[in-house]
Each structure stands twice: as structure tokens, then as C-alpha cells.
Amino acid sequence: MFLVALLGGCGPAKPTYPSARLEGTVTLDGKPIAQGSLQFLPQDPNQAPITAVPIVDGRYVAEAVPRGKVRALLTATKETGKMVKEYSSSRPQVVNLIPEKYRAGIALDVTGDNLNQDFPLKSH
Which of 55, 66, 75, 82 has the fewest CB atoms below 10 angstroms from its CB? Predict the structure, then answer.
């Protein structure tokens, strides 16, 4: 009896809001985005928290995306190989890989689990 009670507390907690599992690919002009992040922002922030997950080698997995209308915000940058002088120091120059038309987010209606929720971004 004690063992059953102990096992009941293991593993990640289930969200207290209606949620879904989303996963898929993030590509730019057909090529995987090497690294970045993806945030799912619920339309009503009082009903559920923001879900943030990494993008690794063009793939992401989000376990607890709020159901309903959400906005997917993508972030991905890369160093150009050039240095930028700022005040008395230098830092690597970084460019945003996400095209301007996607930077405000992509509207989604999450109705349930979707293991093929891809984001095929186009630069033009």
C-alpha cells in the first residue's frame, strides 16, 4: 500500500488547464532552424501560462500548450562571424533568422494533440 502511494507522486504534474501536446519541425526556406525557442502565448493569459520550449536541429516538443487560440512566437539568431565594437569592448554580431512577417507570432487554434504542427517559414 505504501509503495502505491509513493509512486503516485512521481513524474511531471499534469497542467491544471486544458492542454495539448504539440511537436513538429521549424524550417526556414526548407532548411531546419538549428537552434532557437518557441513560445505559445494563450489569448487569455489569465486562463493558462505561456509554454516555452527549445528548438533543436529544427524540431520542438511542447507538452502542455494551452488549448484554444494561441500565438506562437519564434526566436532564432545566429552569429555572422563579424565583431561589433560597442563602447570599449567588442562582441559577436548576431542576426535574427526569423523573417519580419513572422516576428509578431503565428496564430493557432489548438484543439488537441498534434504531432505534426510544423512551422515552414519562408523568407520571401
Answer: 82
